[in-house]
Design brief:
The complex is a heterodimer of chains A (177) and B (456). Chain A is α+β, with helices and mostly antiparallel strands and 177 residues long. The radius of gyration of chain A is 26 Å and the shape is rod-shaped. Chain A folds into 2 domains: 92 residues, Alpha-Beta Plaits; 70 residues. A 4-stranded antiparallel beta sheet of chain A has the order 2-3-1-4. Chain A has 6 helices and 4 strands, in the order βαβααααβαβ. Chain B has one domain: Formate dehydrogenase/DMSO reductase domain (Formate dehydrogenase/DMSO reductase fold), CATH 1.20.1630.10. Chain B contains 16 helices and no strands. The chains are: A alpha+beta (177), B mainly alpha (456). The interface between A and B is large, with 65 and 67 residues.
């Protein structure tokens, strides 16, 4: 049997949440949804897991802090100690207060940019990437649920279409691939 | 669904739908630019060109073209630098700190405030750049071994802290701004008709599709970036103030500088946001989104930060007497009664006395008065930096070397020129970029929109 994708378009975020609840309740797996802004509360319904980007940011921050610690120690204490305004240069722990601003800034720098890059790569949003939203109106004021028959082996495409029709959708498209 | 308190005034006025928000923000980009825009950009570009000319002359001839002398060795250049960095503080404060405090009114103003921040920080970064004069040796500020030998930059120095602070602040603000812009560029990409524009916005939007997981990540990134940008905002101007505070010049050597500079920065940043937004909401017909209430909220921030600045001025005066250090006392007596007293009293009037007028509700909700005040505040804040820098230097320990500072045409040209460059960049932004954060406004429409609020 050929696989097919069903796109059900709604003109309100609340209708989409109700529809998604209804479909999931009937045992239909909803693959994704496309919306012009974040719909709060849709993630647990269609089974989108929590993102780990916060942890990524923390790790990058730790990396940045370690690099800055290593750098300031190497430049100022180990490689070429300088006597500047009488600030102690013979032990890192004595000189560290005047490195705090740089340690902080570099931690923030690495945490922010590391997370931002990971975000862009994980989202597959990079310059020149093709957009995959099924309808140009989903970035304006329409909300689309995507159901792939591949994920729903137990039901026929017709049965899914029938179920979707009952949810008050506004436009239905059905593509075979 | 989340319900907002009925007492709160709606943030989106009128009978708006999701489609209307898109239309109102994107149509100025699709339509032909109005005549006023061409006039404005021509004027600012001419001023910018004059500034570029002065900068080229300065680089070609040398720092001697400035009005500096042996006593006043630091004047307009650093004044302008601090002024622009200060202005660049509102954007990230609005988008980061107000996001953490869940202030929804920030959503109508954060995009343009962040654009303003980025342009202001570019202007600020230019001043240390041209001060180096030999720009091709600019890599010296990075931790490279000096002359590629074995001497490193000095990590104990606030000037190097500044390099790290400004570059971190600039790049993080830029990334924060751009991540918010990506979904809105996608909206324009999917709407605009002309093929070239479609292609360009297609590239700018990075192929954004608005999947559920994309939005979850988007919200997480916004929140975490706001969390780490918040201490960053406060650190940047604190570090700028340490350029002065760690020196031993009477008038600079005070521990009050970091909080004093940060509140001054927020104060002037919000004033600049008011100047730009009041014009923008009128000319681009955004009155339904940037409402009188938004203007009032910003004026309240201006009263609070203006009052903190006022307390700091008075504390400085008190401490100069209470410390018993005669050099310190003399510097302050000289500030308010010496040859630069006019600058001191201009600063006091603009920054301390006039913002107190905003205690009257009638005045803080008046758009014309707010516009006038926003300019007054920025003049005052420029004078603040001038007063701190020049009056502390011009009379030093040796009366025979006392002198005055007289700006040359290059000093003036470079300063006015940066204002021209700033406005040119901002006008380009207003013409080609979504000036409101579309996706964020849509997400608050049902909570704070007039049409939906307090209905059922």
């Amino acid at each position: 049997m050929a696989n097919s994708v069903i796109y059900a378009m709604y003109d309100d975020d609340q209708t989409l949440i109700t529809a998604a609840k209804d479909l999931v309740g009937r045992g239909i797996k909803v693959k994704d949804c496309y919306s012009p802004f974040p719909i709060h509360g849709i993630d647990p319904i269609i089974g989108v897991t929590r993102t780990r980007l916060g942890i990524v940011s923390f790790m990058f921050g730790l990396g940045g802090l370690s690099l800055a610690l290593l750098g300031t120690w190497y430049f100022m204490i180990h490689d070429w100690p300088m006597n500047i305004g009488g600030k102690p240069n013979f032990g890192y722990h004595l000189n560290i207060p005047s490195f705090v601003p740089i340690l902080f800034e570099f931690t923030v720098f690495c945490a922010a940019h590391g997370m931002a890059l990971t975000y862009l790569i994980r989202n597959k949003t990079l310059p020149g990437m093709p957009a995959v939203n099924p309808d140009p109106r989903t970035t304006d004021d329409k909300f689309v649920l995507e159901i792939d028959s591949h994920d729903n082996h137990s039901m026929s495409t017709e049965a899914i279409l029938e179920a979707v029709k009952g949810t008050g959708d506004f436009e239905l498209s059905h593509k075979k691939y | 669904m989340f319900k907002e308190a009925a007492l709160r005034e709606p943030l989106i006025l009128g009978n708006k739908t999701y489609g209307d928000i898109t239309h109102d923000v994107v149509s100025p980009i699709e339509d032909k630019a109005p005549k006023g825009w061409y006039i404005a950009i021509t004027i600012s570009a001419l001023i910018a060109l004059w500034g570029v000319g002065c900068i080229l002359y300065l680089i070609g001839t040398g720092i001697g073209t400035w009005g500096l002398n042996k006593t006043v060795g630091w004047a307009w250049d650093i004044t302008n630098f601090v002024w622009w960095v200060g202005i660049g503080h509102a954007g990230t404060l609005i988008s980061a700190v107000l996001l953490l405090f869940r202030q929804r009114w920030r959503m109508a103003i954060n995009r343009s405030a962040e654009a303003m921040t980025i342009f202001a920080v570019i202007m600020a970064a230019m001043f240390p750049g041209i001060h180096m004069e030999r720009l091709w040796l600019g890599y010296f500020v990075f931790p490279l071994p000096n002359q590629f030998g074995s001497l490193w930059v000095n990590f104990n120095s606030p000037l190097l802290w500044d390099v790290f602070a400004i570059s971190t602040y600039f790049s993080v603000s830029l990334v924060f701004w751009y991540i918010g812009l990506i979904p809105d560029f996608a909206t324009i990409r999917d709407r605009i008709k002309t093929p070239v524009a479609k292609k360009v916005y297609g590239i700018l939007s990075f192929g954004w599709s608005g999947k559920a997981k994309n939005w979850t990540r988007f919200e997480e990134v916004s929140l975490v970036l706001a969390g780490i940008a918040t201490p960053l905002v406060f650190s940047v101007h604190s570090i700028v103030s340490m350029d002065f505070a760690t020196s031993i010049i009477p008038g600079w050597h005070t521990t009050i500088f970091p909080p004093y500079f940060v509140s001054g920065a927020v104060f002037s940043g919000f004033a600049m946001v008011q100047t730009l937004l009041l014009v923008m909401r009128k000319t681009m017909k955004l009155e339904a989104y940037v409402t009188r209430k938004h203007v009032e909220y910003m004026n309240i921030v201006i009263i609070v930060t203006g009052s903190i600045v006022g307390v700091a001025y008075i504390t400085e005066l008190f401490m100069s007497w209470y410390s018993g250090v005669e050099y310190e006392s003399y510097t302050f007596i000289n500030r308010f009664s010496g040859p630069y007293a006019w600058a001191y009293w201009a600063m006091m009037t603009c920054n301390v006395i006039s913002p107190q007028l905003f205690w009257f509700k009638k005045l803080r909700t008046s758009l014309g008065f707010t516009f006038f005040m926003s300019i007054i505040v920025n003049i005052g804040m420029w004078f603040e930096r001038f007063v701190i820098i020049v009056t502390s230097l011009h009379r030093d320990y040796l009366p025979s070397s006392w002198s005055m500072f007289h700006p040359t045409f290059v000093d003036i040209g470079v300063f006015i020129g940066t204002i021209g460059i700033f406005f040119t960049l901002f006008l380009l932004f207003a013409r080609f970029f979504p000036v409101l954060a579309l996706n964020e406004l849509k997400s608050i429409l049902k909570v704070s929109g007039e049409q939906y609020k307090n209905k059922d």
